[in-house]
Design brief:
Blueprint (H helix, E strand, L loop, with lengths): L1 H27 L4 H11 L11 H21 L3 H32 L3 H13 L3 H10 L8 H27 L3 H33 L4 H21 L4 H11 L2 H28 L10 H25 L4 H10 L5 H10 L6 H26 L1 H21 L17
Length: 415
């Protein structure tokens, strides 16, 4: 009875604390993720006031949080949308992968972490935070902007690559042989392909099968199905998160819409628990030694994300202002960088603290980058536009034509 009372007290304090820091983050206009991580660091091993009685619950809750995050991401897209985005945005996705994955891989090799560490840190620096970005776009009232479909297209490609990357990383971390690892990856690819095909051809049938007018029944059926598929995927050495993502893709229409509404509070609760668990399992005394490389990596990969968004928006025919807005919006890293670091933390003890510091930096910087990248580059763009106009006027005068009035009329003037 005493242990139960202690667990309930610690759990109550933990959840109450999450609510308080979440409200604080909302008031200052930031994502609550860094505060959740800091809270976990404060109450974990080596922190100010370590928690002991709730460790088991928090660990299970963290696993559920990852599963629900991927389920909700899958619900955002239909199988046809994924296929269309893959066709239209795959060049931008490849640029995104190279520009943002290579810095992490190179940094890990320079730090002496080996191939598995390089693979893991490449994933940490590559994947943007869909949750933070979606919230920022909503807060800045940019959902209707021309560059927003480009941003979402890049995020879709990242999600697809994650569906392939996570089983590869899981196989590499497990250290299994080449034949066994190839079988696992092939199984993951085959499962993803079959699921996409079934969702494309029979998504309505699956949605009708789980549909219910009773919200309670729908929640229980979808949650049970998601946990079951995630568990089976884990048993087959495929990431449980990938299994949850595929369940989300398979649901569509009104069922997907209702499920998103029902699961959003549940996802937010367990996602918060996940971030706290990651902080709890990270010794804060290990962060100062990796703070400098984390800061350097954050600066480099913030720049490469801005370049990625700029290139993708330019390819879509969007003007310079929209290009910089797209780049700034992609800067934030968050939940999935932490998921990757959590999967690979056992292979390199410095990976978890570096990833924590890295995410803390970019999850705070992300909203500011989304808001101020375009205004910050405005003076440079204006000078370049004026220089081009002067050159055009000089060239026109040299040819005997009528000088321009200095107002740019090419694509650089488009939003």
């Amino acid at each position: 009875m005493h242990d139960t009372a202690g667990m309930l007290i610690e759990l109550g304090l933990l959840v109450l604390g999450l609510g308080i820091v979440g409200r604080l983050a909302e008031r200052v206009g930031l994502s609550p993720i860094p505060l959740y991580l800091l809270g976990g660091l404060a109450f974990g091993h080596g922190g100010l006031l370590p928690l002991h009685d709730v460790e088991g619950f928090v660990e299970v809750g963290a696993e559920i949080g990852v599963i629900l995050l991927l389920l909700m991401l899958g619900l955002e897209y239909t199988a046809s949308e994924l296929v269309d985005s893959l066709r239209e945005q795959y060049p931008s996705g490849l640029v995104d992968l190279l520009l943002n994955g290579l810095p992490g891989a190179i940094a890990a090799l320079l730090l002496g972490w080996g191939p598995v560490g390089a693979l893991a840190l490449a994933g940490v620096t590559y994947i943007s935070s869909s949750g933070v970005i979606a919230k920022v776009l909503t807060d800045l009232d940019r959902l209707g902007n021309r560059e927003t479909p480009v941003i979402l297209g890049v995020l879709v490609i990242e999600d697809l690559i994650m569906a392939l990357y996570l089983p590869i990383l899981t196989t590499a971390v497990a250290g299994v042989g080449l034949a066994s690892g190839s079988l696992t990856v092939a199984l993951a690819l085959g499962t993803a392909g079959v699921t996409l095909y079934v969702a494309l051809r029979h998504g309505r049938v699956i949605s009708r099968a789980v549909s219910s007018d009773n919200p309670e029944m729908l929640l229980l059926v979808v949650l049970g199905l998601t946990l079951l598929v995630a568990g089976l995927a884990q048993e087959l050495q495929v990431s449980a998160a990938v299994g949850a993502f595929l369940v989300g893709i398979a649901l569509s229409g009104e069922v997907a819409h209702t499920t998103r509404r029902l699961f959003t509070p549940l996802r937010d609760l367990f996602a918060a628990v996940f971030f706290v668990f990651f902080g709890l399992s990270t010794d804060p005394t290990q962060i100062p030694p990796v703070l400098v490389p984390a800061l350097v990596l954050a600066v480099v990969t913030a720049s490469t994300k801005i370049a990625t968004g700029y290139w993708a928006a330019r390819r879509a025919g969007i003007g310079p202002r929209g290009r910089f807005r797209a780049g700034g919006a992609l800067v934030a890293r968050g939940e999935f960088s932490i998921v990757i670091a959590g999967l690979a933390a056992g292979t390199e003890p410095r990976l978890a603290p570096l990833a924590t510091a890295y995410v803390l930096i970019l999850v705070i910087l992300g909203p500011f980058a989304a808001r101020f990248t375009e205004p910050a580059t405005r003076p440079i763009r204006e000078r370049l536009a004026a220089r081009r106009a002067a050159e055009e006027a000089a060239a026109s005068a040299a040819k005997g034509g009528t000088p321009t009035d200095g107002t740019p009329t090419d694509s650089a003037s488009r939003v």
